[in-house]
Amino acid sequence: MTVLDDWGFGLVPAASWQPEAVPARVVRVDRGECDVISVSGRLRVLSDSQRSQDEWAPVTGDWVELSEADGIGTIISRVLPRRTSVSRRDPAERDTEQVLASNVDVVAVVHGLDRPLPPGRLERLLVLALDSGAEPLILLSKSDQRGSGSGGDAEAVVRALAGTIPVLLTSVEDGSGLDALRARVGSGRTLALVGASGVGKSSLVNALVGDEVLAVGDVRGGDAKGRHTTTARELVRLPENAGLLLDTPGIRSVGLWEAEHALDVVFADLLERASQCRFRDCAHDTEPDCALRAAVDRGDLDVLRLERFRSLVAELDAQHQREEERRRRGER
Ligand SMILES: Nc1nc2c(ncn2[C@@H]2O[C@H](COP(=O)(O)OP(=O)(O)OP(=O)(O)O)[C@@H](O)[C@H]2O)c(=O)[nH]1
Ligand SMILES: [Mg+2]
Ligand SMILES: [Zn+2]
């Protein structure tokens, strides 16, 4: 039993470590510098990204091995394989994966009931959550604002699309749902909070910690948009060994990254019907005997949901085609 057990050490297979390794967990990444927790406490280290290559650049939540480098000090010499990872397409570079968090047990998609929820945005976030390999959860925050103003139908959107994913309503104002959320974390487990700016992710961390450990920002009066207060992904330990929360900066866009399977889960209702299409590779466009188009015509299926599904499939297909192209060019 070490101090690292409180940080989830017990979930790392012992065989993952090299002999004599000095283990640590990344709790914050800020412009190439990482804060890690090791048996000696919290330290700031450099990532040896030259040797470890960019694809292994450490992210918050990673388990890493530390070593001493002459003249530099403590560095991360190895990033362990990730048990789960929350990733999207890098918004700055078309064909690069961006890992937002790793080794999390629960991915909580957070939406504030003070604002509207476009269904397409929720679908993308759910794909991201399911694709991570962790348990998905939907948090409807600011439940004290429920039914007020523009957030009116957000709860209905969630209920219609959640499928089997659990939904929790929370409020840091009146405390509702906070015990239920705490129960979903648990000793040594990590719950990551993802969602748009201003939905109250950092506020939830502060509420569960019982202290203002993270900065919280206000939202614009008109549309409840946030101001991107959180700038770094940060892992925070709950008191009394109740587990870990991983706070992330608000995300504007959710480009999918190799998430076909998760897409099939989020759109399971469509796929089930699609088995009745005449052609197995039906694009649900103008093909004869398309079961999805027929369902739309009967009024059984929302045409907008069908179009969102088709455009997500197209997005992933395009990504694969570009990858295939690159591979072929590289082989020549
Ligand atoms: N009424 C109400 N307001 C809340 C609740 N939770 C958060 N807020 C408010 O919402 C605003 C944004 O909260 P933050 O915690 O900074 O939101 P965030 O999701 O961390 O935002 P970014 O860091 O920008 O991504 C603040 O003004 C909070 O006080 C809640 O449960 N009820
Ligand atoms: Mg925040
Ligand atoms: Zn079809």
Could you explain how this protein is built, in words?
The protein is α/β, with parallel strands linked by helices and 332 residues long. It folds into three domains: 3-79, OB fold (Dihydrolipoamide Acetyltransferase, E2P) (Beta Barrel); 85-247, P-loop containing nucleotide triphosphate hydrolases (Rossmann fold); 267-331, Ribonucleotide Reductase Protein R1, domain 1 (Orthogonal Bundle), CATH 1.10.40. Helix content is 28%, strand content 23%. The chain is built from nine helices and 13 strands. It has helices at 49-52, 119-131, 154-161, 178-185, 201-209, 260-266, 268-274, 291-298, 303-331, and strands at residues 22-30, 33-38, 41-47, 63-69, 73-79, 85-89, 97-102, 106-112, 135-141, 167-169, 190-194, 234-237, 244-247. The strands form three sheets. The protein has a six-stranded mixed beta sheet, sandwiched between helices. Strands 1-2-3-5-4 form a five-stranded mixed beta barrel. A hairpin with a 3-residue loop joins strand 4 and strand 5. The longest helix is centred in the last third of the chain and has 29 residues, at 303-331. It is globular. The chain starts with 21 loop residues before the first strand and ends with a helix. The mean pLDDT is 92.
Keywords:
single chain, 332 residues, OB fold (Dihydrolipoamide Acetyltransferase, E2P), 3 domains, 6-stranded mixed β-sheet, 5-stranded mixed beta barrel, 9 helices, binds guanosine-5'-triphosphate, binds magnesium ion, binds zinc ion
